[in-house]
Amino acid sequence: MKRRTFLKGAGIDLALPWMETFAAKGESQDKLARFVSIYHPDGVGLPRQDDPAWKDWSWFPQGGERDFRLTKVLDVLEPLRNDITIYSGLSHPASRKVHGHSNADQYLTGAATGSEGPYKNTISLDQVIAEEFGRHTRHSSLVLSTNAGTGAPRATHTSSFDQQGRPIPSISRPKEIFDLLFVTQGKETRDKLARSKSALDLLIANVNTLNRKLSSHDRETLQQYLDAVRDTEIKLHRAEKWIDTALPEVDARHLNLEVTVRDSRAYVQTIYELIYLAFLSDSTRVATYMMGRENSGGPQDLLARAVGLNNAHGLTHEVKKPNGWRNLGIYNRFQAEEFGRFLQKLKDTPEPNGNGTLLDNTFAMHGSASSSFHLSRNYPIISAGGKNLGFKNGRYLKFSRDENLQSNAGIDDDSGWRSDIEHYELPLAHLFVTILKRVGIETNEFAGYKGTLDRV
């Protein structure tokens, strides 16, 4: 029971609000924290300063830390100006010479996944947080994408990677997401769980017998397989723990759970609404949503229909055509607008425990591993919220020595990612260390980089 306590009577379970009397040992309302990362592929528009499009359609703001001016790309976030922070001059050093078609895999990991050859990833930021927060909630994290599944190495469909660096499959259908969070199957679920446990126990027993007969190479292969089995075992234990706890009830009458990406704006809004409901019901405190994979293709390309354009990926290749920067900027504006709508809803919702709003206790992050035309540098990142976690917003923080952000701006071919790094940037991992510390995870290192990010 612990944190979740229920009044029972006449066949009805009524979930009580958060009460400190029934809090899990060591958990207080001051410790409540959430993390969400939204990833958008293909980077953003970054015309040169001498281009007429620069004033209106360059993604990065213009001006100083507090007196910055949002261009037409991000001005939809003006009502939330004091709740957001925009960053420039951050990237993962291991990927700065990786083509933008191959860089999304490392956005939350910082791993040296490379453009080709042997592939190995590491744990993602969200999963480090989920390992700590997951013990308090039914779901340790919510992993979503537009394309679903895992994709392929260097063409991932998921932002989330486990302790061994394996991709965690994402889900994309709103009905499937809703059912996962809020629909139980009663006896059928219990029987399925029991069958899964029996099958897993038998599998482990057979594997232990087989292991003694294998070569050293095969033992290594088997060990990787067993790591995946143990992940399954952990999930089964988690499911067993929560099987008798009533699911939260939410009002879903306003949701169209059958919406598809062909109705692009409604689809994105529904995904955000499901993340909101997951946080509000405390079904999870960690979520990722990958709006699309790098390397083009798949349902993500339909998202540009939300603003009357075709082929989202193609917009980045057409910036030098008439209205090219404007078209890409309008699409980036749509991404920012829906992120802002989500933030406003978090801001308008009081915490059930009375400690501020959902946004005050949530660090929300929106970004990409590319800036201009597949360039894996100067990531365009917005964060929001986290006031109760120690984050001070309303700022534009520049960490590059290129004050005007003109490094490789205006490119529309592969010369950018092949070029040498002209301007100094800081490792994004320093921001990740800061996030981990602020949400209560004691560490001073991520992806091999130590220390926090100054001024955050």
Task: Kindly describe this structure.
Residues 146-168 are annotated as: Disordered. It comes from Armatimonas rosea. With 456 residues, this protein is an alpha/beta fold. The protein folds into 3 domains: 1-27, no CATH class; 32-181 and 258-450, Alkaline Phosphatase, subunit A, CATH 3.40.720; 184-246. 28% of the residues lie in helices and 12% in strands. The protein is built from 9 helices and 15 strands. The protein has helices spanning 54-57, 125-133, 174-182, 187-211, 216-242, 264-280, 324-347, 415-418, 429-438, and strands at 6-9, 12-15, 34-39, 84-88, 90-91, 142-145, 151-152, 155-156, 286-290, 362-367, 381-385, 395-398, 426-427, 445-446, 449-450. A 7-stranded mixed beta sheet has the order 6-9-3-10-11-4-12, sandwiched between helices. A two-stranded antiparallel sheet has the order 1-2. Strands 5-13 form a two-stranded parallel ribbon. Helix 3 (174-182) packs parallel to helix 6, helix 4 (187-211) packs antiparallel against helix 5 and helix 6 packs parallel to helix 7. It starts with 5 loop residues before the first strand and ends in a 6-residue tail after the last strand.
